[in-house]
């Protein structure tokens, strides 16, 4: 057994960035944590130049964000590291909840077969950061370590940054600035921007423990266990024989005292109940917080991840929602930078991700209130629910040991085109796409691996389309109209056609995906002729029972913000 050793990344002189007047960069990201790195990778995949500034020279200490949800893994697939993360991480779908020593509830995050990724993997944040850094560098992102941004001055068309380095300070400008500097966000505080919500009066101890154990790869949560009475405990398996254990301590616990090994080790020995050897890798104390900024966009400055919103750890909503922030933001920002959309499109990033943050905060707050009831009545209710759940299925739905991260359905987004036709199922405008097994060129593949590379029109067909339909599909390569506030139509946004068929079809010049098991048609409630318009971040924006180029053009214009700000 041995603790993880953080890599040290080399400092690079900022001489090439120093000039008078200051250099102007199209895009700067502050913070080389998971969300900032995801934004930088996405920028490079979109063909954008990106400069990343971080005040540290290594990855995070401790497991921190440890649970990565299915939707995050699908985003990481598009960014290019999901296979590596899943190979190293611990995959799981089952969670169990106990009252004292009795199991009262269990759930399955992916109860239906036919998905590429599991419901969750557990993997220490420092491993994920290493993978993201390597990928960002591979794609040509410019990452500068020991470059601390000490001031940001917003202007109408750019922002000026003051950067402190071992060789002294310098100023640099950014057309667009993405702030991903974490929950304490020095930039947010420097700009005097508000963050509102609740801080819950309870404390939890995190212990990352290196040990060999035969517990299954499941999430285990105890209420009032005999080894830690009147409190709660959470157990997760991570990679390399590291186990994450969270102990509820209560608000009166002394954080500095509780972190001492002489306090932590007896708790672990009582829990394990045997003499197995173990080693402490990391110990920390945290409190629950459910807060967010009022607005994630401030002109040319855009906030993502924990810098914009914070939730309690139970539910794994922090890093997972941060990845979704970057996923939502970067395709919109790329269109704006390339002159294919007005910057008003970025207002929809703020609106949609603020909606998602509110949803996460609501679910996290409900979990926190159940786990740490603050009144005699609330505690009585919780204990009665747990007692009933042992024997009565209806009560198990009320057990809340942390409703786990799920992607937000952006059904209220102004970018959506409401249904004009009748559909069933969950793939409504604004929904994150469901995955399904498919075949491409005779080989097994997955639906989501075929999308997420720009706007795409997904047409369901059981035979080669008629010549007039093929002509419409071929016209999609440059079908968007001129967008107010953007450059002329020569910068039109392309839509790539994608045909889904239950059998192989020979259609020259068309991407044909075979839905051999019929799960794509089932999950998308599709019949021959059904057409979906898909966003670059794998969200549905519109759907019809038959293809109409006029309807598709109108929906695309709406999806890139052509209607924003119009009377």
List its salient traits.
27% strand, alpha/beta, 14 helices, FAD/NAD(P)-binding domain, 8-stranded mixed β-sheet, single chain, 26 strands, 567 residues, globular, Glutaredoxin
What does this structure look like?
With 567 residues, this protein is of the alpha/beta class. Among the domains are: 14-89 and 122-194 and 292-367, FAD/NAD(P)-binding domain (3-Layer(bba) Sandwich), CATH 3.50.50.60; 437-559, Glutaredoxin. The protein is built from 14 helices and 26 strands. It has helices at 34-45, 70-79, 82-88, 125-138, 186-190, 255-258, 261-272, 318-337, 345-371, 376-389, 393-396, 467-474, 519-523, 549-559; strands at 24-30, 51-53, 67-69, 90-92, 94-99, 102-108, 120-122, 142-144, 148-154, 159-165, 168-179, 195-210, 219-223, 232-237, 242-248, 279-293, 297-298, 301-303, 309-310, 437-440, 443-446, 455-460, 495-501, 511-514, 531-534, 540-544. Strands 1, 2, 8, 9, 10, 11, 17 and 18 form an 8-stranded mixed beta sheet that branches. The chain is globular. The N and C termini lie far apart (65 Å). Mean pLDDT is 92; it is low at 480-489.
Helix/strand layout:
Layout: E1 24-30, H1 34-45, E2 51-53, E3 67-69, H2 70-79, H3 82-88, E4 90-92, E5 94-99, E6 102-108, E7 120-122, H4 125-138, E8 142-144, E9 148-154, E10 159-165, E11 168-179, H5 186-190, E12 195-210, E13 219-223, E14 232-237, E15 242-248, H6 255-258, H7 261-272, E16 279-293, E17 297-298, E18 301-303, E19 309-310, H8 318-337, H9 345-371, H10 376-389, H11 393-396, E20 437-440, E21 443-446, E22 455-460, H12 467-474, E23 495-501, E24 511-514, H13 519-523, E25 531-534, E26 540-544, H14 549-559
Parallel strand pairs: 1-2, 1-11, 2-8, 5-13, 11-18, 22-23, 23-24
Antiparallel strand pairs: 3-7, 4-7, 5-6, 9-10, 10-11, 12-15, 12-16, 13-14, 14-15, 16-19, 17-18, 20-21, 22-25, 25-26
């Amino acid at each position: 057994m041995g603790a993880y050793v953080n890599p040290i990344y080399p400092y690079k002189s900022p001489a090439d960035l120093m000039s008078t007047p200051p250099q102007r960069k199209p895009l700067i990201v502050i913070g080389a944590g998971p969300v900032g790195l995801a934004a930088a990778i996405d920028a490079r995949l979109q063909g954008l130049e990106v400069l990343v500034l971080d005040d540290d020279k290594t990855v995070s200490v401790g497991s921190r964000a440890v649970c990565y949800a299915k939707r995050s893994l699908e985003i990481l697939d598009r960014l290019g590291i999901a296979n590596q993360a899943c190979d190293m991480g611990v995959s799981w779908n089952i969670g169990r909840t106990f009252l004292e020593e009795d199991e009262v509830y269990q759930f399955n995050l992916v109860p239906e077969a036919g998905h590429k990724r599991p419901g969750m993997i557990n993997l220490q944040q420092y491993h994920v950061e290493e993978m993201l850094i390597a990928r960002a560098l591979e794609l040509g992102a410019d990452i500068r370590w020991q470059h601390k941004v000490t001031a940001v001055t917003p202007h109408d068309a750019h922002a000026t940054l003051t950067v402190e380095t071992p060789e002294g300070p310098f100023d640099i400008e950014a057309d667009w600035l993405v702030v991903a500097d974490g929950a304490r966000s020095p930039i947010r505080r420097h700009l005097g921007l508000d963050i509102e919500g609740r801080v819950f009066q309870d404390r939890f101890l995190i212990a990352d423990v290196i040990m060999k154990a035969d517990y299954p790869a499941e999430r285990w949560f105890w209420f009032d266990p005999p080894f830690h009475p009147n409190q709660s405990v959470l157990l997760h398996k991570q990679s390399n024989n590291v186990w994450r254990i969270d102990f509820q301590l209560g608000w009166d616990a002394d954080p500095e005292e509780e972190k001492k090994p002489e306090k932590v080790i007896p708790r672990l020995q009582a829990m394990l109940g045997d003499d197995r050897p173990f080693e402490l890798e990391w110990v920390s104390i945290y409190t629950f917080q459910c807060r967010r900024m009022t607005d994630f966009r401030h002109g040319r400055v855009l906030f993502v991840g924990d810098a914009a919103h914070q939730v309690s750890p139970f539910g794994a909503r922090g890093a997972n929602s941060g990845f979704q922030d970057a996923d939502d933001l970067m395709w919109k920002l790329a269109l704006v930078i390339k002159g294919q959309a007005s910057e008003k499109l970025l207002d929809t990033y703020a609106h949609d991700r603020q909606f998602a943050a509110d949803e996460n905060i609501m679910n996290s707050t409900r979990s926190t209130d159940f786990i740490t009831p603050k009144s005699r009545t609330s505690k009585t209710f919780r204990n009665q629910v747990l007692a009933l759940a042992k024997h009565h299925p209806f009560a198990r739905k009320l057990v809340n040991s942390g409703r786990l991260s799920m992607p937000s359905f952006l059904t209220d987004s102004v970018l959506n085109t409401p249904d004009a036709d009748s559909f069933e199922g969950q793939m409504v405008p604004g929904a994150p796409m469901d995955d399904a097994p498919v075949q491409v060129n005779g080989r097994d593949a997955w639906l989501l691996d075929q999308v997420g590379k720009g706007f795409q029109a997904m047409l369901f067909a059981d035979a080669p389309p008629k010549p007039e339909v093929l002509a419409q599909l071929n016209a999609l390569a440059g079908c968007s109209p001129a967008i107010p506030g953007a450059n002329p139509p020569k910068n039109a946004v392309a839509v790539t056609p994608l045909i889904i068929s239950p059998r192989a079809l020979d259609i020259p010049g068309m991407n044909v995906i075979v839905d051999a098991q019929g799960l794509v048609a089932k999950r998308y409630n599709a019949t021959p002729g059904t057409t979906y318009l898909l966003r670059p971040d794998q969200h549905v924006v519109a759907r019809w029972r038959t293809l109409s180029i006029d309807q598709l053009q109108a929906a695309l214009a709406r999806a890139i913000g052509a209607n924003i700000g119009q009377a």
